[in-house]
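Supplementary Methods. Inverse-folding protocol.

Structures were first reduced to a discrete structure-token string of length 394. This string, shown here, constituted the complete conditioning input.
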């Protein structure tokens, strides 16, 4: 009964940074009722930044004309209340109102009050409205839709052939394993190890031909196998199961080359990027905790992460994140230990066996019979402890 234990640590400072977060944020209300109460803590700030914080805390999409947000200030929101009440408090005095419909927030200007003469009174502090402007720009703040738009824009603006995966908010990657998230990109297939994606291959070439960069620097990770089918990585292939996906907020899969790329990626280049302090505004604290139960292992596998980040003005920021995983995988199966032919002692063959079959037992021709060399059952136990730590000063 082989047992494999692995402890992987990744510590990066200065320009290497990370982003952690909850798969379900503490204040998320996505898919819930707008009348459910939840705690809010949003400081007074520009309206666009406040709406971003509101979207992250509620999980709601915010849709508005970009011209409406410019130059407006949001009111602070503190305490426990419904999403609609928090939105009303946030927008009070801004000249805007919001409505929550089917998981999205729609903003619109308030109706202008009328004077005694019956003419609309201009909003205080603003010029009298002119002719109605055409709504040509829509801003989507936060959420999965924003991440898709970022990926689309990155591919559209790139001078090479690439696909990108964005985690617009902390811990928003599509999968808990980096290789499995990258597998969603066309032209990518992965190898698995211990139930997780391990290596990535591009454009039909093996993992050894895929070059990996971490924040613009050449990176290499090699590990031993964690199940009975794999082996020790002694090549150039990158083992993605070393890292938790929460440590990263962007992955670029570049399928062609350009002058700015170092050579070496015949199949392509995978760029892993961690977050930096100025990816978030002001102070940011986020935690995540998950637990998985396996009936076969009869154990609970915890998964936890935390991030703390702060910026001081526009000149300095610091970030620290930690991710920890402890999992136990039990695998049962059967092995043949290869197949072989010949080597039979014909005198020991029962007389009831068909003579035509007996003649093929020690045959060397194309009709020879093969049998399992050493048939056996196996029970493989894989215990994995993974610790990731990233830090950044910017």
């Amino acid at each position: 009964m082989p047992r494999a234990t692995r402890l992987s640590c990744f510590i990066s400072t200065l320009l290497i940074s990370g982003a952690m977060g909850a798969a379900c944020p503490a204040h998320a209300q996505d898919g819930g009722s707008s009348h459910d109460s939840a705690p809010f803590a949003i400081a007074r700030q520009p309206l666009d930044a406040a709406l971003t914080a509101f979207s992250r805390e509620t999980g709601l999409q915010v849709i508005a004309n970009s011209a409406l947000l410019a130059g407006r200030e949001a009111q602070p929101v503190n305490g426990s209340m419904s999403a609609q009440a928090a939105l009303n408090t946030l927008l009070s005095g801004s000249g805007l109102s919001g409505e929550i419909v089917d998981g999205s927030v729609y903003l619109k200007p308030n109706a202008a009050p009328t004077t005694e003469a019956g003419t609309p009174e201009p909003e205080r502090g603003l010029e009298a409205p002119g002719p109605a402007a055409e709504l040509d720009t829509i801003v989507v703040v936060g959420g999965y839709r924003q991440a898709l738009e970022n990926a689309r824009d990155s591919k559209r603006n790139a001078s090479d052939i690439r696909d990108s995966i964005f985690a617009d908010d902390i811990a928003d990657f599509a999968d808990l394993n980096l290789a499995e998230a990258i597998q969603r990109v066309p032209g990518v297939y992965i190898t698995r190890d211990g139930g997780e994606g391990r290596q990535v291959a591009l454009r039909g070439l093996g993992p050894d031909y895929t070059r990996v960069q971490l924040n613009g620097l050449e990176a290499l990770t090699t590990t031993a196998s964690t199940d009975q089918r794999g082996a020790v990585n002694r090549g150039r292939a990158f083992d993605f199961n070393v890292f938790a996906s929460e440590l990263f907020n962007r992955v670029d899969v570049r399928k062609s080359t350009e002058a700015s790329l170092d050579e070496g990626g015949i199949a392509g280049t995978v760029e892993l990027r961690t977050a930096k302090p100025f990816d978030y505004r002001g102070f940011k604290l986020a935690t995540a905790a998950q637990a998985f139960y396996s009936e076969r292992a009869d154990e609970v596998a915890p998964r936890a992460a935390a991030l703390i980040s702060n910026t001081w003005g526009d000149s300095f920021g610091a970030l620290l994140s930690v991710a920890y995983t402890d999992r136990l995988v039990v695998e049962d199966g059967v092995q043949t230990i290869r197949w072989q032919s010949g080597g039979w002692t014909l005198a020991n063959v029962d007389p009831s066996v068909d003579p035509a079959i007996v003649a093929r037992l020690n045959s060397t021709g194309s009709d020879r019979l093969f049998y399992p060399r050493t048939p056996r059952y196996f029970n493989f136990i894989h215990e994995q402890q993974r610790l990731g730590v990233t830090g950044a000063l910017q």
